[in-house]
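User: I'm putting together notes for a lab meeting next week and I want to include a structural view of one of the chains we've been expressing. I don't have a solved structure, so I'd like a prediction I can at least talk through. The sequence is below, exactly as it appears in our construct file.
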Amino acid sequence: MAMNQALPHSSWLAELPQQLAALDTQQLRRTRRSVAPLQGAHILVDGQPLLQFCSNDYLGLASHPDLVNAARAGAQDFGVGSGGSPMVSGHSTANAALEADLARFVQLPRALYFYAGFATNASVIPALVAAGDAVFSDSLNHASLIDGCRLSRADIQRYPHGDLAALDTLLTASPARRKLVVSDAVFSMDGNVADIPGLLALCERHDALLMLDDAHGLGVLGPQGRGSLAAAGLTGEQASPRVLYMATLSKAAGVSGAFVAGSEVLVEWLLQKTRSYTFATAAPALLARALQASLRLMEHEPVLRARLQARIQQLRAGLAPLLARTGWRLLPSDTAIQALVVGDNAAALALMEGLRQRGLWVPAIRPPTVLQGTARLRIALSAAHTEDDVELLLAALTELATP
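Assistant: Thanks for the context. Below is the predicted structure for the 403-residue chain, given as structure tokens.
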């Protein structure tokens, strides 16, 4: 069929323009923007210089010279591609060394390095449970965990966000022999931290495995940034064989990819059975070299987390006077993710646009990413932000909140 030939009205493809128009009516159409880094937390967005509060680069490491130099040296040593899956020829000596460093950093027996975070969650869960098993998922879990649960074909039980009593009831009622509880450690749109000791206690009581996604906790929380599990005191000698720890390496670590860590036998099982590990091309060695440099900085440069915590406290204190007179809600969070709930989709988009006009980029998050009626600004803070940067944001929000 010629490319300019019209589709018949009966074709489902002919319905797509109307469906896109419906997204526009609901203020739900997403728009990509082309960006390039400038200095500090400043970026060029579609040609406009903006101060951004949207990046997950929580420690400001993505452009750190140590990482850039390590990646450059890795490219010189290994080239820019891996050439195969890890099970064939792609498991470079650099990737092997990174896995050992990751396990040491999070203080768990063994780690397995994946090329991407979404693929990790979507394929690890089906390697652990299948039809006839049961998986229990927090209602605010990330889409990658949700998709992994669906792909597993296990019986999916969603429990209300953070409700351990409801989870206990579901676990008690389940006849499944194999039970898996999956939860974000830091919830990506709210910024709050799961009750990890409480989740583990339930898993011990009900003979279940706990899988934690710490995408937004690694590098930020815990001693030396070792993550949410370390912050809960459940690593090293206190590590449990019932915990599978997953974290991405594209947030605070500043690079790309993800890993899982846990007991020797659990990680070996995933090495054998995880399809995205077996059949996908391995991550290039240059990224592993950059990530090793990132781990060293996270471990030995506490000033990065100190700067981030100072910006978090500054923002929360500065927003407090605005909340009472606007009806906005600032969700509880001690993490880099600060959610300012506006409510209405159009209002959140208008606030985002008002900030953009003032040289600030703060994303408006709308359904289905968040619940209906809870559209928000997701303010992501970084060690790259200065005190003046946060003051500019507070001043702009104050101006926009003034009738």
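A couple of points you could mention at the meeting. The CA atoms of residues 33 and 260 lie 31 Å apart. The first strand starts at residue 35 and ends at 37.

User: Perfect, that's what I needed.
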